[in-house]
Amino acid sequence: MEASASAPHASHIEAEPLEWQPRASWVGARLLCGALSFFFASFLFAYFYLRLLDVHHAWKLGHVNPSIGLGIVIAVALVLSAVALRLALHRPAQVVALGAASLLLALLAIALQCVEWTTLGFGPASGGYASVFVGWTSLYAVLALPCVYWIETQVAGFWRERREGTAQTPELHRAGLEACSFFWGFYVAIGVLAFVVLYLV
Asked: pLDDT of 73-114, one tens digit each?
């Protein structure tokens, strides 16, 4: 009871200085990239481990060949999305249009991934390759949804600023967009790596 009574009130806690927020966004995006690297590295390890062992010749059971055409379209949509968002950072006059284009391309890639699952003709039980393919692509698509939301919040912030004609904290908006575009570019690079490993290797 005494400890809780002596705890400081919220009004006595000093607020974080506003000038710290751009740096915090910069660092946070890079830390998030590091965390995702370790997460998706498990699928990369599983792919090569299961392929090299090929226990009971169960690497591929039956007809296990995903559509390379759909894979290419998904990868291209992701890359164009990352490029558009990065361009938005360097073209303030077109930030809303480029951000919206990036958002739509990202949603297109997720939608096409869902379409691909319906045309696979195999499931996660069709050998080691199939289990890695389904696991990697499904978790990649699911985790792309929060990324899409992050892009949307950045675009909405700039759009609202333009509509209301206010620019009170442009450096914070730019820092948020830079963090978002850096992280999305890194996430797309993981998607391209997935395409190369799952379709071409």
From this structure: 999 999 999 999 999 989 888 999 999 999 999 999 999 999
Residue with tokens 């759009």: 159
Dihedral in degrees, nearest 10, Cα atoms 71, 76, 77, 79? 130
Class of domain 22-55+67-200: mainly alpha
Place of tokens 């997720």: 110
What tokens appear for 118 in the block?
A: 């319906």
Residue ranges per domain, the chain? 22-55+67-200
pTM beyond 0.90: no
| Residue 167, pLDDT score | 59
Q: What is the pLDDT of residue 3?
A: 47
